[in-house]
Amino acid sequence: MTDMPPAILPPERFQQRLLAWFDEHGRHDLPWQHERSPYRVWVSEIMLQQTQVATVIPYFERFMTRFPDVASLAAADQDEVLHLWTGLGYYARGRNLHKAARVVADQHDGAFPVHSLDEMAALPGIGRSTAGAIIAQSTGRRAVILDGNVKRVLTRLHTVEGWPGRPAVERRLWALAEHYTPDERLVDFTQAMMDLGATLCRRGTPDCARCPFEEVCVAHARGEEKLFPEGKPRKALPTRTTLMLLLQDREGRVLLEQRPSSGLWGGLWSLPQFDDAEALRAWLDARAPGSALEPAWAPFTHVFSHFRLEITPQPARIGRLDAVDEARCWYDPSDPASIGLAAPVKALLASLAPFALTTTAGP
Fold it and tell me: Where do runs of H (alpha helix) occur along 86-183?
């Protein structure tokens, strides 16, 4: 507790204010709140990482329909899991969700280890805060959370300086979160903290007039709400370029390749990618001799957290193709298969109809 700044409110008063606000204004009818099993709470928490509630709800409902429990998720193929994840982004979350389900099934007899924060945090893709949220939300036991919403609330209340990703700053925020977390009503308290950050103490446009801590928030008193939390030190995003081969057969099907399990779009299906036109042409000569290139489409940019990817789609008519192995498949845009697709690839495939190749293509 030595790293903790002086508290504005005693814990009991903080909890009373927050819970009174939550009882009247909090979110009580989210799909994962009925029922609050460890499995349902876990899936929702992973989906909600860096994604808005309104976006997550339809994905969560489709996911629960197909995978109602951890056993069905563990038994599924990764392709199907990533197919249901397509569009949510941050696909490592989907891969880790599948890995964690298999760990729970194989090493924990199909039951989440909610008795142990350390064991929960050790599951793929979870970590300390998510583990705390799952335990508190599904069991009502005391566990502390510190997600992005909670960090924002605490940094503004206490004007905690520094980027929250720095270890020293994060330690101070964990100390504050520990200080304020009660021993009772943990389900409501953790949801209230997340709701306060998501609905009032928003990143760009905080609604301070409706906040239960308006008169005790230091950042608000200074008129500096938008200065907290401090952003990550910015670096100019580097730009990479790639050519994506849109190789179609006479039936309009497109050749896809499965990405390696790690790295960019890990485990997803994508168009064959090349650093330059020479590499693409060499691949066609070796793999699909006799194929004819069409004029390239206009490039577009897909932005990741750490770089920008400039993509140039390169359509081609198939000549003949060497045998398609298990890492490649023919994809029919008019009858899409249930496989996980990278978001820009999904968009390109959806746009193919107006550009369908003629039936004269091929041998």
Answer: 92-107, 117-121, 127-139, 148-158, 167-180
The torsion of the CA quartet 122, 123, 124, 129, rounded to 10 degrees, works out to -70
User: Do 81 and 97 contact (CB within 8 A), yes or no?
Assistant: yes
Q: What is the pLDDT of residue 328?
A: 92
Catalytic residues: 45
User: Of 208, 216, 202, 201, whose CA–CA distance to 158 is shortest?
Assistant: 216
pLDDT tens column, 16-61: 999 999 999 999 999 999 999 999 999 999 999 999 999 999 999 9
How many residues belong to the chain?
363
Rounded Cα gap, residues 136 and 38, in angstroms: 10
Last residue of a domain, one of 177, 202, 227: 227
Decide: pTM greater than 0.85: no
**Together in a domain, 220 and 270:** no
Q: For the chain, what is the domain count?
A: 2
